[in-house]
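Our platform keeps sequence and structure together, in a single record for each protein. Because each token names a local backbone shape, the row as a whole describes the fold. One such record is reproduced below, unchanged from the form in which we store it:
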Amino acid sequence: MKQKVSNNTSNKEKDKNKIKENGKINVKEVQNKLEEDVVIMSCNSSSNLNLPIIDLKFSDSCFAALLDTGANVSLIQPSALEKIKEQNKVTFVSRLVRIHTLNNNTLPYHSAVNIKFRIGNKWFSNLFFVTQTNWSSKYSIILGYDFIQKNCIVLDIPNQKLLIEKQSFGFYEDTPRNSSPSLSADTESSQVRLVNNVTILPNSSRILKLKISDSFTNEKNVVYIPSCNADISINESIHNVDNSGNIITIVENNTSNKITLRKNSKLGQVHSTTDFIFRDSNDFDEEPNEILQVNTLTADEITTLRREELNADNFNLEHLNETEKNEILKLLMQNFKVFSKSYQTLGCTDAITPEFKLLHNFPIQTKPYPIPKIAHDFAKQEIQKLLEAGIIEPSTSNYSFLIIFVKKKSNSKELKFRMVVDYRLLNSVTESFKICLPKIADILHEISGKKWYSVLDLKSAFFQIKLKNSDKHKLAFCSELGNFQPTRLPFGSKNSTPYFHLLISKCLDDFKGPNIHFFLDDIIIAANSISEMNTRLQLVFDRLAKFNLTLDPNKIQICKTNITYLGFNISANGYAPSEDNIQKVTKFPVPQNVKHVQSYLGMMNYFRHLIFNYAEVVEPIVNLTRKGTPFVWSDNCQDAFNVMQEIILNKPTIKNYDESKPLYLTTDASNVALCAILLQKDGENFYPIEFFSKQLSPSERNYPSIRRELFAIFMGIKHFREYLYGRHFYLLTDAKSLTYHMNLDKQPDIVKRWLLYLQDFSYNIDHIKGCDNPADFLSRMQIEDVVVNNLFHMGDQLSHSNIKLCQSMDSCTSEIIKRIEEKDSKTCQKYFIDSYTGLLMFKIKSGKDQILNKIYIPRNLVRDCLLVAHAPHFGVQKTYDFIKIKYFWPGMYADVKHFCENCCNCMQNKPERKTITHSIPKHHLAPGEFLAIDIVGKLPRSVDNQNYILTIVDHYSRYLEAIPIPNTTSNTIIRHLNYYFSRFGLPKYILSDNVTYFKSDEIVNFYESLRIEHRKSCIYYPKSNGFLERTHRVLKESVVCYSLNCITTTPNMLSHNIHPQNYFLEEGLTFQFIHMMILNMLRIFLYIYIRFRNN
């Protein structure tokens, strides 16, 4: 016996070397070796099993830990972790591993945690996996080989020492004794016997290897019924029988004493699973499940059902005449095998075999949602139908995903739902099966331009593909009605679409071309005559029948001249957006946040190849999605939004691509975008095939114009490569010097790469004028930023086109226009028609010789004009002066006065004051020499964190600047003052109040360095800085009134109030504020120029 143990020891050393080869731990080798060690040690009745246990300290708590060199990872019981979390910091980490036990079963765990602990006075940190249940009351933690290897620990068993670096720590052994009471053998006959002697510690569990009788060794599975004993617990269970005729189970010691089980002890009986009677669900008192699987239809019965359920009323052929209708209907009824109206008659194919490979094998389970009461009857019927058709089956899988019921859109009063399985968690761990889907634009180009079209739609397409038996359990789902798993390819899995496209490609790839195309389950067939359509329909029907695929007769469209396919209307004239998509675009609300903007752009990108210069038009909206940009829906964004709606409403139509005709590519580039158009000729006229546009990046906008032209050619040819490669085409451009620069030898590297790419194509370069180049217009058609040159921005109601339309409809203005056309001399003295805009204009004298022309506003646009002009909420006179600069209508002053005096916001936020007239002080200085500054704030309701306003007023010209600032630090104030001085020159004096940030050392040094005299106003006497305080009152009132209507950025809010104020002509002043400051700037520039010239 000693020799045998010695041999085993030497073999063990060899096995350890094998396990630790290359510094890595082989989990499988460790498990196999540990199991062999247990068996060998158990065979030696004279040997004792010593378990090294050490105390781990966590703050105030202490737990016993087993040092297990055979365990590859460290484990902790959930009860111990809960106590440790109360006093210590525990870090949860993400780990995806599989932990195997001795019998090669997977050990489930909750999570993985990093925990710090002490052994003696030394701190350690280790990763522990938290098991789902407690396994022992003797020790709560297992320190595995990962901890031993990480800290280079040596176990000194004879001295019971743990050696770590140069420190040693003691541990104690839990040693079984042979004098422990043993369990008496079962006196009854039994078919299960213990293989080895086993000692079980008090209140702990051990793994037992049991030998079954020879009569059961051929059984694959057996049911184990243990013997009854109060001291130990063994659960009834079903086991796999290994090649040696053994099963493995777990025994637990319920006592406080050690228990030894002797070899060959009888521990129960086993039964065959075929003879064992299990209780059915009907044996319980619970409500019986009414859902049963009835899948007994044969292939002939399914064919008969298809014939019976199909009738002529299922097909909509009212658009055809009687002859065509009878011919098509005969063809459809003859091919009844390819039509299905129910799940039972659905097609089923194994032409492809989907595979669902998971990144790990941990079962994923989700808690089911309760089924809404309103959908409960539908859910029961739907599951029953799927069971009867064999599309799903009852499941006992460890995987479980929830189902939800989504209400369908329906014109009928009856509620309809769609059952959806939520596979998002499964999709996150499923290996992707990638396949290239066809481009929708390519399909539309090839298929459009024909006379007749048909669209076929497969019935529940994914349900027609069989699943592998090994994958069914991974896709199981649960509900209140039970657990089920699909037998066909389900909806919702991320690999369902690629596998279905693989099937339909295998089925119809032989017929794919200019007359037959498909995109997933939608098949389109084109023809120029009914006979051609019949022939091609029969080809498709035959191939679908060969693959046992079926169509939905209620969804197919047969022999139409105008058909909807993939969101587009296709006809002989080309293709354009469908009516449904046009309605979606026109009814899309104005975006309120970045997420809405992204949804809108995602919808519009579907039509970008139909839209002139799409990138340029939507640029203001795209800018809102950039990182760090605050969301402000500006006038530019609204204009772009309106333009896109107008374009889609006009149904842009693209003709089909004709391979027999030559191709023309025209390109152009502006400062902000580039554009390319692929053209073909119909006689002498060009028509577009597709549009391409691209916004330029900041670095690309810095290119010289000649390089941008070349870049536009490069990007245009690259985008249309599939059309241009391998055939000759004509390149149309309006840059004469481009052809010269393309032949130069010295070019930047990036230009060389572009030219090298273009060498693969065959083309002629033809020069055309910019006015004849449509791409030139598209690249420059930019929605410019709002420039305050008209004082305020007019909306769509006051656009020239709308004013012209309203003038023609208004009785008064239309009469004046009529008299002008009749050349009435009296009328022509006061009114005329502008030759450029076509608007009715009013002549008014200003001064002795000056005549001003104003736009005549018809009566129905007066209120719109007043709303825009009164946006800053100024008084009657300023609003009137504001409007009369550009517009005229009879009784204008009276209308302005009535509107301003009845403005609700003004009445709420502008208290009545008694006007006190003061004389205007005499100015002994020039514009820009005496400034008054102050800060308004802190302001609320700002979306860009600009919570203060720095105001600067010039005492001579009264020119006001209000600058939004985020804070009142000295550096911020100095930075903005420097910017003001760079435009208007240095002042001699600056007047401010006595607030701290205007008296800081930085501000004082700044003034001294520029030789500016700093004057301070009197405390508690606002009149000492009266100009600025009066300006603040107007500014605050206007800002409050404006902010009540919208929340916007501070710069936008100020632009509606400050810029108009600088254009007003105050009583007693000859020039407007802004004009005086501009004259001052010219004086400064002239002074600099003369001084520079003299030097």
Residues 1073-1094 form the longest helix (22 residues). The longest strand covers residues 109-119. The two ends are 115 Å apart (CA to CA).
